[in-house]
Specification:
The chain is about 30% helix and about 25% strand. The protein is built from eight helices and 13 strands. Strands 3-2-1-4-5-13-10 form a seven-stranded mixed beta sheet, with helices on both faces. Helix 7 (about 135-145) packs across helix 8 (about 210-215).
Length: about 270
């Protein structure tokens, strides 16, 4: 099966997820509409004051984080493969009287749809696993950044994706540097595990070495890579809540999250 067909399978699954996610406790839409940010401590601390900055949000789902940045005064554009997600993002933008832009396209094709250059390119939590190859992704990020601009990603650690979570207890099944696509078909979604929708998904594992090398070879300067035990989301089995309200493995045997910042030097 060609990657186009895999992308199309994923797009259809994400289209189905939108209606379920918007009603879920996970996305907490009533409080979001009332002004609560959807952003977490990692990205808030990393990005700091973004007032009047131009920000491109890759793989934005239905735009909550994009709109949270817009509430902070950033000039935002969100991109996602799901037309249903983008449709809802545009409606939320109108309802909340914000000025974000949203574009429906495969993230790898972003430069074909957007010519603007940005101060910040941002992506977070469950994004790069949908991409078969990070080289065109990194090239696109470089193209969309202004000189002096930076890319920031906060993402689940690749070790976490070595496990098959469709069995209990989870089994380490997939390679850390596996090149082949991983196909999973299961009932429910991370935002509503009791949902009867069937998720059909193709994903790819990417090591930290691949992430760093792809961005570096595209021309970006890596400022830092940080790894963290604690996740803001309780989406893996067996996590316990710590004193900061984050979720971690009881034995902290491997990190759950990494952050990376890379700069396009002038």
């Amino acid at each position: 099966m060609k990657n186009f067909e895999k992308f199309e399978t994923n797009r259809k699954t994400w289209n189905s997820k939108v209606a379920i996610h918007v009603e879920s406790e996970f996305y907490d839409m009533p409080n979001f509409r009332s002004g609560k940010t959807s952003l977490n401590k990692y990205e808030i601390d990393a990005l700091g004051d973004i007032f009047d900055k131009r920000l491109l949000h890759l793989q934005c789902h239905f735009g909550q984080d994009t709109l949270s940045f817009a509430r902070m005064g950033a000039k935002c554009t969100g991109v996602d493969i799901s037309d249903e997600g983008i449709k809802l993002a545009q409606k939320l933008n109108t309802d909340l009287k914000l000025d974000a832009n949203f574009v429906c396209c495969n993230v790898l094709d972003t430069s074909e749809y957007i010519s603007e250059k940005f101060d910040v390119v941002f992506t977070s939590y469950g994004t790069i696993g949908w991409l078969p190859d990070l080289k065109p992704w990194a090239k696109m990020i470089y193209e969309r950044l202004k000189p002096g601009g930076y890319f920031y990603i906060v993402e689940f650690h690749p070790i976490a994706w070595m496990f098959d979570y469709n069995v209990s207890p989870p089994v380490m099944k997939y390679g850390y540097q596996q090149k082949e696509a991983i196909y999973e078909e299961y009932e429910g979604t991370y935002a509503d595990q009791n949902s009867k929708m069937v998720s059909k998904e193709y994903g790819w594992n990417h090591s930290l070495g691949e992430v760093i090398t792809s961005l570096s070879k595209a021309g970006l300067h890596i400022e830092y890579l940080k790894e963290h035990d604690a996740s803001p989301y309780d989406i893996f089995p067996g996590l316990i809540k710590n004193e900061q309200g984050m979720f971690e493995l009881e034995n902290k045997i491997y990190p759950l999250i990494f952050e990376l910042k890379a700069i396009k030097k002038t």
